[in-house]
TrEMBL record:
Similarity comment text for this entry: Belongs to the PAL/histidase family.
Reaction(s) the record says it catalyses: L-histidine = trans-urocanate + NH4(+)
Gene: hutH
Molecular function in Gene Ontology: histidine ammonia-lyase activity
InterPro entries (UniProt xref): Aromatic_Lyase (IPR001106), Fumarase/histidase_N (IPR024083), HutH (IPR005921), L-Aspartase-like (IPR008948), Phe/His_NH3-lyase_AS (IPR022313)
Entry's EC annotation: 4.3.1.3
Organism, as annotated: Saccharothrix hoggarensis
Protein name: Histidine ammonia-lyase
Location(s) in or outside the cell: Cytoplasm
Keyword Lyase: yes
Coiled-coil regions listed: none
Involved pathway(s): Amino-acid degradation; L-histidine degradation into L-glutamate; N-formimidoyl-L-glutamate from L-histidine: step 1/3
PANTHER family for the chain: HISTIDINE AMMONIA-LYASE
Keyword terms: Histidine metabolism, Lyase
Length: 512
């Protein structure tokens, strides 16, 4: 596996995914080494100057007015990390912590933080050894960055606290570092502050969510098309000239995909004749491209914000090219927090419209010939009745999760930090929202596949037939009632796997 390069070139979203989820190693480039060394020389010059410099020869936050003598500065940095590693609650997922460490290392190697080269090298070695600091759910206000989560990672770098080793076992940090041949870092001036003053946790979660949402919106196009087909709807509303009248790029993409997914369907052909009396389909079918497309455009905007952040160096104070060390407010997480909150809205709405499509397939008054609840023996069997209840419960939760976190600010640090972003909280709830959308789409997939099977002998389109066939490798077709929970879990795992059948078989759709 090729290492991800840390240097002048900004990281990409693919780089973050490769390290966080794929376990790719990282490598500090020669240009980055030179930049780190140059910046460090400026910090060492300021450390001996009479004029105090924040984070170098002073305390922090509301205690920044106190000058710290040279013989106490190493203790100052270690005390900062220890005291700020004050998280609580469940452990944060490994992929999030790896993303957080990678993104902090990206800023550390930018030449704007003033750390020593050996500190950056130790963090890279920890990442490459698969050592994952234990980070807790609560402790970040999203300003001055993700303080408690990043402090937990910094504490592990110094050989304190707990970590998960490459096997996932919980061990003391000192033990894991020793086993990997990594010398614990003894922090020098400015280093403790540089290790913890960034927006890396919320940015990492944003990047991971964007990858997931792009995939799930492809899945939503597929499951929506399957529902349209199963409900004997029309694909005429997905025509390109109709969507050209409202040229939102996401809407056009979803419409093209749904039209291509439904191409060559015997079920669709069966009701195109003059004897069909249906004028137009319900909104949940007809307007799927508009809803999915608006979600796609929101994701595209969030990607722009993520890419800008990936090209940023977030620290306070920062070392500038001319050697100045200046305080700033770039650690405020508002730009990321807003889009994290924004994404929770279309995530909930895409789930909501999927639930409405599912409900139509189960209602004998609206399903156009399908049995009640798709049951094998209605009355004896309940079919997918309660699967829709599960969808409804998830959608209700997603609506609550769509309430923004970034509008809530609680002052901290004796009113020095009197306005915060709550970006970490926005990121944590977006992860829950993404999981909820996946589950809702899994239930629509199960229901639509069962409905298409019940339309036999008419054949679905090649693309939807491939999706049904893949699902049938894990879940049986129509029959008497079975334990549904494992089937929902199997469909969810299938979607999570990223297999091409769940995205609409790109090779069957062509270039869209």
């Amino acid at each position: 596996m090729q290492p991800v390069q840390l240097g002048p070139k900004p990281l990409t979203r693919d780089d973050v995914h490769a390290v966080a989820r794929g376990g790719a190693p990282v490598e500090i480039t020669e240009a980055a080494r030179e930049a780190v060394t140059t910046a460090r020389s400026h910090i060492e010059r300021l450390a001996t100057a009479e004029q105090p410099t924040y984070g170098v020869s002073t305390g922090f936050g509301a205690l920044a007015v106190r000058h710290i003598p040279p013989d106490r500065r190493a203790a100052l940095q270690q005390s900062l990390v220890r005291s700020h590693a004050a998280g609580a609650g469940p452990e944060v997922e490994r992929e999030v912590v790896r993303a957080l460490v990678l993104l902090r290392l990206k800023t550390l190697t930018s030449g704007h933080t003033g750390i020593r080269l050996e500190t950056a090298e130790a963090m890279a070695a920890m990442l490459n050894a698969g050592i994952t600091p234990v980070v807790h759910e609560f402790g970040s206000l999203g300003c001055s960055g993700d303080l408690a989560p990043l402090s937990a990672a910094a504490l592990a770098l110094t050989g304190e606290g707990d970590v998960r080793d490459a096997r996932g076992d919980l061990v003391p940090a000192a033990q894991a570092l020793a086993a990997a041949g990594i010398q614990p870092v003894r922090l020098a001036e400015k280093e403790g502050l540089a290790l913890i003053n960034g927006t890396d946790g919320m940015l990492g979660m944003l990047v991971l969510a964007l990858r997931d949402l792009n995939h799930l919106l492809d899945v939503a196009d597929l499951t929506a098309a399957m529902s349209v087909e199963a409900l004997l709807g029309t694909d005429r509303v997905f025509a390109a000239d109709l969507h050209a009248l409202r040229p939102h790029p996401g809407q056009g993409r979803s419409a093209r995909r749904m039209a291509a997914i439904l191409r060559d369907s015997e079920i669709m052909e069966s009701h195109r004749g003059p004897d069909c009396t249906r004028v137009q389909d319900a909104y949940s079918l007809r307007c799927s491209p508009q809803v999915h497309g608006a979600a796609r455009d929101t994701v595209a905007y969030a990607e722009t914000v993520a890419d800008r952040e990936l090209a940023s160096s977030i620290d306070n104070p920062v070392v500038l090219a001319d050697g100045r060390v200046e305080s700033n407010g770039n650690f405020h997480g508002a730009p990321i927090a807003y889009v994290l909150d924004f994404l929770a809205i279309p995530t909930a709405d895409v789930a909501s419209i999927a639930e409405r499509r599912t409900d139509r397939m189960l209602d004998v008054n609206r399903s156009h010939g399908l049995p009640p609840f798709l049951a094998h023996d209605p009355g004896v069997d309940s079919g997918h009745m309660i699967a829709q209840y599960t969808q409804a419960a998830i959608v209700s939760e997603l609506k609550r999760l769509a309430v923004p976190a970034s509008v809530d600010s609680i002052p901290s640090s004796a009113m020095q930090e009197d306005h915060v972003s709550m970006g970490w909280s926005a990121a944590r709830k977006l992860r829950q929202s993404v999981d909820g959308l996946r589950r809702v789409l899994a239930i629509e997939l199960l229901t639509a596949a069962r409905a298409l099977d019940l339309r036999r002998p008419l054949k679905p389109s090649p693309v939807t037939a491939a999706a049904v066939a893949k699902l049938r490798e894990h879940v049986e077709g129509p029959g008497p009632d079975r334990h549904l929970a494992p089937e929902i879990a199997a469909a969810e795992d299938l979607i999570r796997s990223g297999c091409p059948e769940m995205s609409g078989r790109p090779e069957l759709l062509g270039a869209l």
